Amino acid sequence: MMSDAPRRRLPRWVSTLVVVGLAVIFLIPGPWRGFEGVASTALAPLQMGVSTIADQTLAVVSTIRRVRDLADQNAAYQDEVADLQSQVVHMHELEVENADLRNLLSMKARTGPGALLPVQVIARDDSPYVQAITIDHGAADGIKQDAVVITHQGLVGLVVKVDPTSSKVRLINDLNSSVSVRLQTESRTTGVLRGQSQGNLMVIAYIPQTDVVSEGDVVLTSGLGGIYPEGLVVGKVSRVDRRDADPFQSAVVEAAVAMDKLERLYVLADSGQ
User: Where are the beta strands (DSSP E) in the chain?
Assistant: First the structure.
């Protein structure tokens, strides 16, 4: 026996219209008012269906509102996190500035009564054979040629060109740089430190073989020549090149200051000639 064909269900909107239409009819006075009870019983399944649809609709609307509220709350949290991150960055910069000020006080004791002018690096020379930077102060700020540039860690270089609002600084690791230095050892070895344009490395050549030079020895400015004041930290000996047949030895020195990470510097404004 063949089963009955499946009945096609009416769309929900049709059921809704029927219920609404019959409700309107029975609300109007007329002879059909007696059929209200019968109609209510007959339409009960449809009313239940409409009620279910209404409940589901309300649930969907409530869910949409909840999602919207959560999205607004999430956006507010993201703004708060971004604000806190900005505050952390600002606090870190303040800590760096405070450290610079503390270091400035200690540098004043080492460099004497001359003015220490804080400056910022604004450019670096593009040539791999030239180690130079540009700072944001110039003649209008009291910068002079041959003024010495330092950080709290040690010697950076020398001002070689002065413009009204900026200056060019040759770093001590430049090929054309030479600094009279002294090793902080018992022998008090002196020499001339020359740049190599190879990272932070420099060389002191023509050290007598009789002088004891060891890895880790501290290198300071000697004050000879009148350009660099005495006692500024230059770096440490990283390697000693010695041959018994040669009358001299040489020391490879690593700068105390990271020359590729220069930001805040100080100019000994009264040290120029």
Answer: 116-124, 132-135, 148-150, 155-162, 167-171, 178-183, 190-198, 201-208, 218-221, 233-241, 248-255, 264-268
Q: Is 268 exposed, middle or buried (0-12, 13-18, 19+ CB in 10 A)?
A: buried
Please list the ranges in the chain whose pLDDT falls under 50.
Answer: 1-2, 32-33, 271-273
Do residues 220 and 184 touch, judged by C-beta distance below 8 A? yes
Report the predicted TM-score, pTM, of the whole model to 2 decimal places: 0.62
Query: Phi, psi at residue 123, to the nearest 5°?
Result: -160, 160
Show the tokens assigned to 23. 């409700």
Assign domain 116-268 one CATH number from 2.40.10.350, 2.40.50.140, 3.40.50.2000, 1.10.1240.10.
Answer: 2.40.10.350
Mean pLDDT, all residues of the chain: 80
DSSP state of 47: H
Tens of pLDDT, residues 58-102: 777 778 888 888 888 888 888 778 777 777 766 766 666 666 666
Put residue 21 in one of left, alpha, beta given phi > 0 → left and psi -120 to 50 → alpha.
alpha
Q: What is the DSSP letter of 272?
A: -
What are the extents of the domains in the chain? 11-111, 116-268
